[in-house]
Amino acid sequence: MERCEWGNISDKMIKYHDCEWGVPLHDDRKHFEYLMMEVMQCGLSWTLMIEKREIFKACFDDFDYIKISKYSEKDIKRIIEYPGMIRSENKIRAIIGNAAKFMEVIEEYGSFDNYIWKYSNGKTILYQGHQKGKLPSKNGLSTIVSKDLKKRGFKYLGSVVVYSHLQACGIICDHHENCFRYKEIIDKYPTVHKRREKEEI
Known about the structure:
By secondary structure, the protein is mainly α. The protein has helices at about 10-20, 30-40, 45-50, 55-60, 65-70, 75-80, 90-110, 110-115, 140-150, 160-170, 180-190; strands spanning about 125, 190-195.
């Protein structure tokens, strides 16, 4: 069984690649989990985030954004001191602030899922060349979404970070065409083809 090359790094990465990455996601709690991990990733590797996922889960109430939005200074201290945790107070504070903004989006749109998927009209985007492995770190769509999130007060969600989320939650399918997940996803979910140059920044 062939998969994207990065998905073979470790057992945890294999599981993440095979079961989660790129599968169209419609669960707000899971959206927030990915966004939280993507905030923590800034300047680090996604492999490290997957390895520390259980630590994040323990520190952040299993990614419950309602509880996280109410965290106090005591919680920040608890998280920083948790064994194995990435000790970035700025990122931790950003996640707490983002939880509150996340809830504001839910109040406006009914769910964060409704908000994020409106950018692709509910379809998974297949960009020309991406299935061949020609992947950018960001594109026009991720920049548009990032600008809107920043306008809403979200932190640490620049265009590169947002592009990672669009990949992870299945709005953009960036599995390689030889990867077994590529065919499974495009056969099961509604898709739309777009040309790469139409998303240039």
